[in-house]
Each structure stands twice: as structure tokens, then as C-alpha cells.
Design brief:
- By secondary structure, the protein is mostly helical.
- It has one domain (9-118).
- It has nine helices and no strands.
- The chain has helices at residues 9-20, 27-33, 60-64, 66-70, 83-90, 99-103, 109-118, 120-129, 139-149.
- The protein is globular, with a radius of gyration of 18 Å.
- The protein starts with 8 loop residues before the first helix and ends with a helix.
- The structure holds iron/sulfur cluster (2 copies).
- One iron/sulfur cluster binds next to α4, α5 and α6.
- Residues 27-28, 31, 55-61, 81-83, 103-106 line the site of one iron/sulfur cluster.
């Protein structure tokens, strides 16, 4: 069984950074930059789908999205659990946390590693700036509670 050759980030770095710098759910575009189904997939079908890049409608990206956890009523707008649904219900309210990329089974590991190694510091410092917002969980308070119980 041939190994899937994943996207070399060096070849797509400029467009990937463009995607990551845009205030919109990035997972669908990162999926399209990826290499698609592995020849070793375990789906019970005979058609050769290796390389196909379709969204699986697994909903992982919707479940992990912190914006939707704060605004659960947005999820009621659609039963669909695709990246397209994520884009329509989050849109420009995207936190740019990149979590949806990391949980998508159709995004290449090479792209996930790039995000973790090159973007997470920026993401965390952006989130840190928001600590204290009344809409955000108070992490300092949470830590104090944990420490006082230990
Ligand atoms: S907030 Fe995070 S998880 Fe939600 S769409 Fe934006 S990047 Fe993806
Ligand atoms: S996480 Fe699932 S639903 Fe979201 S884009 Fe990837 S395959 Fe599609």
C-alpha cells in the first residue's frame, strides 16, 4: 500500500498564511490544500477515493469551535455539520484560533504541524489579550479555584 504524500508546506506557505490571516473559518481551505484521502482509508467502499478532498461532515470543526461554544444559538441555524456550515454560522466572527484545522481528519499533518509550530504563539498571545473580557472565561479565577482546592 503506497504511503500518502502529504502537502509540502513550503509549496503552499504563502497561500496558507493568507488563509490563516483571514478572519474566517480556515478549515475548509486548509482541507483543499491537503492531499485528501489516504489509499489506506478504512471506508467500506470499492471506489478509489485516494486523494479526494471532500468534507466528511463529521462536525469535528463545529464541535471544537470556541466561538460556537459561546454562541450556541448559532448552531441551531443548520443541521449540517460541514466546513461550509461552519463558514456560514461563524463567518467573520471567527476567533482565528485554528482549532478547527487541528481536529479535521482531512487536513494534512504537515499543515497541522506548521500551524502548531508557527502560529500557536501568536494565537495564544491574541487570546491572552482578551482575558478579562466579560464574555470570556476568567482563567485567573479558574486557576485560583484549582489551586485553593489542591
Ligand atoms: S474560532 Fe477557531 S475553531 Fe472556530 S472557525 Fe475560527 S479558527 Fe475555526
Ligand atoms: S472537521 Fe469534519 S466537518 Fe469539518 S471540514 Fe473537516 S471533514 Fe469537514
Amino acid at each position: 500500500m503506497p504511503q500518502r504524500i502529504q502537502t509540502d508546506v513550503k509549496n503552499v506557505e504563502a497561500v496558507l498564511n493568507e488563509i490563516l490571516n483571514t478572519k474566517s473559518p480556515p478549515v475548509g481551505r486548509c482541507r483543499l490544500l491537503s492531499s485528501g484521502f489516504s489509499p489506506a482509508h478504512s471506508l467500506n467502499i470499492t471506489e478509489d477515493i485516494s486523494g479526494h478532498k471532500e468534507c466528511l461532515s463529521c462536525g469535528n470543526c463545529i464541535d471544537i469551535c470556541p466561538f460556537l461554544s459561546r454562541e450556541p444559538s448559532r448552531r441551531e441555524k443548520t443541521e449540517s455539520r460541514t466546513s461550509m456550515a461552519l463558514e456560514s454560522i461563524v463567518g467573520e466572527d471567527c476567533d482565528q484560533c485554528d482549532a478547527c484545522i487541528l481536529v479535521c481528519p482531512q487536513v494534512d499533518t504537515t499543515i497541522k504541524h506548521y500551524v502548531v509550530n508557527h502560529r500557536m504563539l501568536e494565537v495564544m498571545s491574541r487570546l491572552e489579550e482578551r482575558l478579562g473580557d466579560e464574555d470570556e472565561p476568567d482563567i485567573d479565577l479558574f486557576l485560583e479555584e484549582v489551586l485553593s482546592q489542591s
